Fold these 2 entries.
Entry 1:
Amino acid sequence: MDKEQLKLQLKQQIIESLNLIGIKPEDIKDDTILFGEELGLDSIDSLELIVLLERNYGIKINDPKEGRKVLVDINTMADFIEQNTTKQH
Amino acid sequence: MLYIHSTSCISAQHTFDDVNLVVLNPVEENKLLAVEPNSNQIPNAVLRRMGKAVRMGIKAALSIVNNQSELKGIIIGTANGGMEDCIKFLNQIIVYDEGTLTPTNFVQSTANNIASQIGLFTANKNYNITHVHRGLAFENAVIDAMMLIKEHPLDNYLLGGVDEISTYNYNISLLDGLYKNEEVKNNNLYEIETAGSVAGEGAAMFLVNGKKQNSLATLRAIQTIHATDEKIIASNLKDFLASHLADGEKLDLFLSGENGDCRLNKYTKITEKIADTTTLRYKHLTGEFPTASALSLWFACNFIENKKVPNNMVKTGSIPTEINTMLIYNNYNGIQHSFMLVNR
């Protein structure tokens, strides 16, 4: 899977797991800030995203500081997955 | 004595905004699914996490607590709470081998989530409690409210009953004989002489206090019984009426919890005979669920306030011109029974 496919898959997985009502993958840009005003995610969502990474890509985030760097936008998440993935995605 | 000042109801029928109990939404696949109203009071970011029971409870509650003086308590009855989320969470435990579990389903599955979310939305930090006594969950919430009002008659309380249908629970209850195997419609639920009923869900909320002035209705008395012998139900009902009706006072209406389950007809028949008045039924509108009695109280308030009863709810007798005193009888699964005496 190339990087663009990975990003699209990630957007679909985020929408599904967080039940983002009325949002489509194309509504989330690669550099849309996940937490804050743009997408409006909160601390409970960060836990859901950490679980999403573990379940779908076999990646564990144990260090909260690392989580802050990874869960910025789709670009940072996709980069992190590419560098650390242990599952075929 | 508990005075009801405001009510709201979300059910499978038109009971929320424009109330219409004449044109009925049909039973589909032996379920009466609640029609959820749109609400702009709940942000999408919060709404997306909520299960149906929580959404119904909050929408019904917010429609009557806004612009009211401060609530001194939020008292909710729910047998199952967010059952659908509970099942999702339990499935996650199995699928992910107790490993990566997400918080949302767990948080949403707890029974007290409905009352606590109402507390959060109304910024209310007062008494907040959830009663979960299965088929008597709402009745126990009523008893709690009555005791509080006896001590603090000027205080306002939000009282409600909520339950949702979950697919998993429906299947378990179907196997347990709670629901009919054959297809049923609203108009033949009581005619098919088989075991089981149709599944239902809904939420009814009441703003209550101890002040008679400007009240819609009065809940004079309530009694709960755990029994399977209809003779015990009959003797309790006779005592209940003897204790709470004035000399010579007659019931204008009897609202029966008959649900089409032939095994439970012995209870509804004997209570109907003792009530000795016009009998109404409501479970072809709501379906059967543990807190359906909350909806029966909403129906009683609606009839008393509007002085109208739809013909489709009348089993026997004629609709009186004046509706002053109503008896509500409900039973859940033939084990948990309740009587409520409601007045103008």
Note: The helical segments of chain A are 3-18, 43-57, 64-70, 74-84.
Entry 2:
Amino acid sequence: MGKRLFFLVILLVVALYVMRVTAHGRVEVPPLGNTLVDAFATVEQAVTRAGRLARDVLTFPFSLVRASQRAQELSERVDLLESELQQVREYQLENERLKRLLDFQSGPAASSHLELAAAAVIGRDPGSWFSTITINKGRAQGIKTNMTVITPRGLVGRVISTTSQTATVLLITDPRSAVSALVQDSRTPGMVEGMAGGAGNLHMIHIPNDMPVKAGQVVVTSGTSRSIFIKGIPVGEIVSVKRDPTGLFFEAVVRPFVDFNRLEEVLVVTGVRSPAL
Amino acid sequence: MPGMVFLPGFLLLALLLQVTVVDLIRIRGVVPDLVFILVVFYAFWKGQREGTFWGFVAGLLEDLVSGHYWGLNAISMAAAGYLVGWFETRLYKESRLVMMVLTFLATVAGQLIYYLLLFYLQVVISPGVALTGVILPAAAYNALLSALIYRRFYRMYLRGWFRMSRL
């Protein structure tokens, strides 16, 4: 009995130690893990595809019912957006003129000149606590740790580990994720954190008391010098605001623009080109 | 010893489904854990020693695939296997309801251990969010799914699919 207990304690201590050293950000994925993940990736990709196909087939009749109503809504929205687009074109031209005048080389405008690599989502963290995805591009395709991952709608997360054929992306909804952000129109700073479980909303904390924000405002990445993320990527829209428990700051619930339940393809930002002026 | 083939086979299949298609039935960020449910079944049939061992193995497999914190699922699943194994000779194995309640309790226990280990790993999540956002919904989801599939697996167990020499 004593021998068995001794063995159990040793096993527990070893497991606790290994758990610590295999945490992301401390060491690279061990070589054995690399091989396993790569071997598993091919099968994962096939099963994920089959699963999505099955879901699409099963939900097809429901989607038909909604489709005609949606078409009506969309056509109204297209009209509205077209008029807005005209206005935006005006602003864009004006912006370019002013930029030339100022010799402006950096800033949010530079973010539109991103070098992107498209990747398919082939797997997701098996549990309910963390939000990570596995994508089918890795070191062999030039993907590196800390690269920003986006979709055309907005920020998805960042690469936290890579193998030769796959990469793991920490989603912004993960409780370990923190993104330095700004409210787009008022430039109010804050930190956007993920939450475990729940409806997939984000928490924006440390919003200064003297710069209150309101529902409906858009949050973008701030891209400050210490931030991993690229500047000006849309994160989400503020849903509600309240004072934080200390009373020193405000905090807001942010609904992300990206639908994390239906993430099939993502874009990894592999570089930023300086805009040609 | 067909169990030496079927149990690891089912665990691997469950793991593959877990990282791929189970995500499609995610509700409010929570997914059922197929691997965990299998461990609960097996521990209930075979007792504490097998429950703990296979809980550890299955948890470690999940850890290897998720690629971080190796041992986190292994320890929490081994503990859940140990707990469920205690009921081996104390409850009726035929009842779907018993299995449902047992899966619920095992998930709560396993996830609480997981939550405590997260503190050790410096991942801080508020207790309220953990309990209402993850632990209880995951337990309910696991319990529901285990009730749906238990009979089928129990029939396989009775036919000797999971028979193996004692550890």
Note: The domain at 178-261 of chain A is CATH 2.40.10.350 (Thrombin, subunit H).
